[in-house]
Amino acid sequence: MGFGGISIWQLLIVLAIIVLLFGTKKLRNVGGDLGTAIKNFKQAMKSAEADESKDEAAAKQVEHQEAGATGAETKTDSKAKA
């Protein structure tokens, strides 16, 4: 028994039929295209993660600046009231 009830011989027969139908050159091109697509997908995911972390850092910086501005306004208001 192989994969889910399919023996290794059945898999080899299916592979041989696929090679006969499409040829090795076309299968090689499909494999190369698939590899390129996976590589580009991984690069896009890394780029998206980098953009996300930059956005989070910028949001934290804005929050920090707003908190500092609010604190400064409070000090000014308290001096004006006194």
Lay out the secondary structure:
Blueprint: H1 8-22, H2 24-81
Contiguous helical run count: 2
- Strand-residue fraction? under 5%
Largest sheet: none
Task: Specify the helix fraction band.
Answer: over 70%
Tell how many strands the DSSP assignment holds. 0
| Total domain units | 1
Structural class by sheet pairing and helices: mainly alpha
Radius of gyration: 30 Å
Order of helices and strands: HH
What overall form do the CA principal axes indicate?
Answer: elongated
Poorly predicted runs are none
Beginning-to-end CA distance, first to last residue: 88 Å
Mean pLDDT: 82
Concise account of the structure shown:
With 82 residues, this protein is mostly helical. It is built from two helices and no strands.
What attributes characterize this protein structure?
82 residues; mainly alpha
Describe the structure.
This protein is mainly α. The protein has one domain. Helices cover about 90% and strands about 0% of the residues. The chain has two helices and no strands. It is elongated. The model has no long low-confidence stretch (mean pLDDT about 80).
